[in-house]
Design a protein that fits this description.
The protein has helices at residues 69-72, 83-103, 109-118, 122-125, 133-143, 146-153, 158-166, 173-185, 202-211; strands at 26-28, 35-37, 41-42, 53-54, 73-77, 186-190, 195-196, 199-200. By secondary structure, the chain is α+β, with helices and mostly antiparallel strands.
Length: 215
């Protein structure tokens, strides 16, 4: 993690969601603003606040060179939407899909993976009940700007773009200005996976998050 200005780190935009401490086993994420399990992770990147804590999903924003990042997140071009708002929408949609799956007795990881595969492929989505349609359509909309980001950057890899940005010459004012323009529209969108030692822990994270929200 680093606050290096040549690191792909979208930041929190505005400190409008002050995180709460995790003394009771839960906290409010300073980025997406959602109730989250655990005590959170310290935010070390650019922001207007001090001592902010973020959930495991929003932590991806400040760890874009991690080995699994390209399986966990994608680059999208959304200048009309703040990064924190996008994280809120994505995690809310994921939690809704997870809740619906559990209500149908489908809480295994294979079913979750089937859901994720159906998001970019509307034809696969027809196998699910109509109740799945709204959150899937939202995620499909958010993903629709992926091609625009890849066209602008000539790469769809979060890790590759992070490396390229860090190799930019820090003394070049034009380069710095171009990076600022790039960051104005570039966003990171979680894919619905969160890998730990090769295992996807995101479904378990969502289950714990759902337990914090009154049904």
């Amino acid at each position: 993690m680093t606050s290096d200005p040549f690191f792909l780190q979208p930041g929190l935009d505005q400190e409008i969601r002050p995180g709460k401490d995790g003394s009771d086993g839960a906290f409010t994420c300073a980025c997406c603003g959602l109730p989250s399990p655990g005590a959170g992770l310290p935010w070390t990147g650019p922001s207007t606040g001090v001592g902010l804590r973020v959930c495991q999903v929003c932590n991806l924003l400040q760890d874009t060179s991690r080995a699994a990042i390209d399986a966990e997140a994608m680059l999208v071009w959304w200048p009309e939407m703040s990064q924190s708002r996008l994280m809120f929408l994505a995690r809310t949609a994921h939690q809704t899909l997870r809740l619906m799956a559990r209500q149908q007795g489908q809480s295994d990881r294979q079913f979750w993976e089937t859901i994720l595969k159906a998001i970019p492929d509307p034809l696969l989505g027809t196998q699910f009940s109509p109740s799945f349609r709204t959150p899937m359509t939202l995620l499909r909309l958010l993903e629709s700007r992926r091609a625009e980001a890849e066209h602008r950057l000539q790469s769809g890899s979060v890790r590759q773009v992070t490396t390229a940005m860090r190799l930019c010459g820090s003394a070049d004012e034009t380069v710095r200005r171009n990076l600022d323009l790039l960051r104005a529209g570039l966003r990171i969108l979680p894919t619905g996976r969160l890998l730990d030692a090769g295992a996807d822990v995101y479904p378990a994270f969502l289950d714990k998050a759902l337990a914090l929200t009154p049904s």
